[in-house]
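2024-03-11 09:14:02 INFO worker-7 job=invfold-0412 stage=load source=structure_tokens
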């Protein structure tokens, strides 16, 4: 997924708008697949540190992602674009907004896994595309296809069923879907490459995250220094790889695939999370949940139909 500058001159005169592929490529497919597999397996790792507070885990995700993201930028020679972005106050302001939404998303996801609600997190990422379509229609005035309207309606019925079962709205699912949808919405207005954008976001978050970690360690409440005997230290450090690797691999792979292909592949991760929640974590999955998830799967099939038809038409041309 990474691209390399062809000369020093190119590196010194950055372009702030990333290119988008018009056709699928095998490297792009493999990169995207690797990213979604890593995201799908992430609950197994987070489950190992479920005893650590979510805010502390997110702080370590930020701190240990920063050197990895920085090293990648140096290796691929894209630091000039980042330096240009840092000098633009408007871009820094928008990066603060996207950093806020991604932090909210991470906090809720970590909490969901630790509290035995991985099924709700899977539902959140299933309905995320439908939330994104709704946001685009409401905020950008984009016209929804009839298939998309049906899909959103089916998803709303599924949410209503889950709300009836739980006695309240599935707030984890809705919060995850909305926070990631708004992150993507505002991220589109950040005219910088995906790798540089990720580094900029964790750079902004690094100072408060580091201050919080130092506070925890100084009061004896932290799990980093106290975790040497039970592997918590190494697990917290590995959060950098677990966070940065799939994001940066995906970002580069997305440039080598059609948007329709990415739209279909995005269901890999929540499907894996669903399987892990039911068959490994043994979370309750009764008839009402089955009915709700069945509606979601039908909704996603209806939603994906235009993308599949467009893909087939493009292949025939």
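2024-03-11 09:14:09 INFO worker-7 stage=emit residues=317
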């Amino acid at each position: 997924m990474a691209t390399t500058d062809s000369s020093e001159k190119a590196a010194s005169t950055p372009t702030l708008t990333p290119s988008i592929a018009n056709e699928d490529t095998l490297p792009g497919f493999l990169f995207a697949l690797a990213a979604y597999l890593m995201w799908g397996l992430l609950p197994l790792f987070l489950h190992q540190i479920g005893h650590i507070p979510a805010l502390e885990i997110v702080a370590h995700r930020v701190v240990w992602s920063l050197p990895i993201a920085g090293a990648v930028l140096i290796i691929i020679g894209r630091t000039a674009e980042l330096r240009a972005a840092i000098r633009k106050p408007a871009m820094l302001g928008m990066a603060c907004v996207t950093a806020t939404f991604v932090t909210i998303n991470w906090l809720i996801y970590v909490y969901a896994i630790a509290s035995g609600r991985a099924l709700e997190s899977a539902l959140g990422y299933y309905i995320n595309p439908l939330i994104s379509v709704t946001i685009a229609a409401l905020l950008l005035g984009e016209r929804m296809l009839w298939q998309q309207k049906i899909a959103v309606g089916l998803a709303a019925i599924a949410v209503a069923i889950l709300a009836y079962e739980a006695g309240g709205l599935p707030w984890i699912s809705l919060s995850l879907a909305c926070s990631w949808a708004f992150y993507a919405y505002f991220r589109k207005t950040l005219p910088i490459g995906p790798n540089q954008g990720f580094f900029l976001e964790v750079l902004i978050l690094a100072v408060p995250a580091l201050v919080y970690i130092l506070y925890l360690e100084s009061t004896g409440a932290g799990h980093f220094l106290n975790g040497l005997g039970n592997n918590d230290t190494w697990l917290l450090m590995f959060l950098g790889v677990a966070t940065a690797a799939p994001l940066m691999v995906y970002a580069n792979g997305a440039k080598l695939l059609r948007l329709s292909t990415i739209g279909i592949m995005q269901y890999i991760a929540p499907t894996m999370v669903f399987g892990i929640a039911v068959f490994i974590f043994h979370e309750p999955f009764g008839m009402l949940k089955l009915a709700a998830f069945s509606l979601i799967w039908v909704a996603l099939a209806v939603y994906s139909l235009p993308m599949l038809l467009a893909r087939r038409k493009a292949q025939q041309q």
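2024-03-11 09:14:09 INFO worker-7 stage=report msg="Residues 26-316 form one domain."
2024-03-11 09:14:10 INFO worker-7 job finished
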